Amino acid sequence: MTEFFLNSWTVFYTVFIALFLFGITVFVHEVGHFLAARRCGLVVKTFSIGFGHALFKWEKDGTLYKIGWIPFGGYVALPQLDPAGMEKIQDGEIQEACPDVSPWKKIAVAFAGPIGNIVLAVLLALAIWLIPGDDAGAQMRPVIGNVETNSAAYVAGLREGDEILSVSGTTINNWYEFQVETFLKGSETLSLNVRRAGIEKEVTVPTVLNEDDVPAIEGIEPAIPCLFGAVTDDSPADRAGVQVGDKALVFNGVTILGWEHFTELVQAAPPGEPAQLTIERVGTNLALTVHPEYNEVHERVMLGVTFAGSSLPWMLYRNPIDQLKSDARMIVRVVKALSNRDEASQGAKSLAGPIAIFGILMFSIKTGLLNTLGLIRLINVNLAILNLLPIPVFDGGHIVFSLWHGITRHKVHAKVQAVLIHIFAVLLIGAMLLITFNDIDRELKIKKFFGRLLSGQTETK
């Protein structure tokens, strides 16, 4: 019974934290609009913290402030950005509901919401950079660490150590982008541009649907970086001066391709004999001498180090600028796919709705603080970019309407704005329902998919 209550409390706590963190993203967006509207002199009808029936409310300077009983997110009512509030059409005559304001002020207010999300994303990126931990920065380069000899990939010519430069003409920077391009291309075969020993070559490889129904190249694994997350006290690595955060580059004269390759090299080394280990520490290469030891418990030769880093796509970098650039690339790539006739179908399948986002957020909460901060950062960048798309129901739509007004000196008629907003609202609701249906269809595979990314990568070597 005690275990049942503990498990129930854990689920409740995780759900509450997930809702709260997602609510902060929405709240920061609305605060951006609110502060800019106040600064620009727009009418702010309502500013609400949370949703639903008001637990507390008060009015000041013409604005109704509310605290809703659902304490997640919030909203701000700006009638001058709403054609139905700005101009009421009665008996064929247009009557001003609120004082008119400059279109440039409207643009500033519309931009302020996404800017609020970007500011929060920057703060989270700085936190990930400054908070100690090994959850970020183990970016997996697009280098193949292992190829099964009986696989189609091996037959096609892929080999261990090959660096994948592009997928069907699209340049990639890391293993995650390789997976994304493999998915978005949605082709039965892919043309890979790989580099081996300084020589580039084209390799045509067939794809298959894996157990998650995602297109993939069967038989290859990435070269996981040898970034050390922990060093066992009084181990060979500890005595040699290895520190947490070091990255192994060369072992006994052999360039290390990845974590698994490093493990093989260590286990092949004679126990007790000196071995040369070159590591990278804060941008500087250092040569160390280690004496591998045979571990009776694990029955193999070991150094006493543990893998660091996360293979989650939002934790590939520790540098704040690289974090934000990676987030933006991920989102822009999906938007680009949706606008491409050949990739639109796969791009639509990659979209995640509230259920999927909530499930991934709960997963991140269970895996640690930094992973959670990284996902919230990504969600904020995502919300900022998507809201700037020139679609009438988004901030970008208000910006387009106001730009037209500012450039031509003529407003887009209120009826035209209202019709466009209603049409796109219906389309957006339909799209969200479809995405939600897809979320439900694949929801059970989310934890399985991300769980595999983390499993088997924390064993002491």
Q: Measured on Cα atoms, how large is the radius of gyration?
A: 27 Å
Structural class: alpha+beta
CATH topology of the domain at 141-223: Pdz3 Domain
Give the overall pLDDT as a whole number: 82
Tell me about the biggest sheet?
4 strands, antiparallel
Strand arrangement across the biggest beta sheet: 7-6-8-9
Q: What oligomeric state best describes the polypeptide chains here?
A: single chain
Poorly predicted residue ranges: 85-96, 455-461
State the share of residues found in helices, binned by percent.
40-55%
**Approximate strand percentage:** 15-25%
What's the total number of strands? 20
Examine the secondary-structure arrangement and name the CATH architecture of the domain at 141-223: Roll
For the termini, the CA-CA separation is 39 Å
How many helix segments? 13
What is the overall silhouette? elongated
Q: Could you explain how this protein is built, in words?
A:
The chain is α+β, with helices and mostly antiparallel strands. Among the domains are: 141-223, Roll (Pdz3 Domain), CATH 2.30.42; 228-294, PDZ domain (Pdz3 Domain), CATH 2.30.42.10. It contains 13 helices and 20 strands. The chain has a four-stranded antiparallel β-sheet with strand order 7-6-8-9. Strands 15-14-16-17 form a four-stranded antiparallel β-sheet. A hairpin with a 2-residue loop joins strand 3 and strand 4. Helix 1 crosses helix 10 (354-367) and helix 8 crosses helix 11. The radius of gyration is 27 Å and the shape is elongated. It starts with a helix and ends in a 7-residue tail after the last helix. Mean pLDDT is 82; it is low at 85-96 and 455-461.
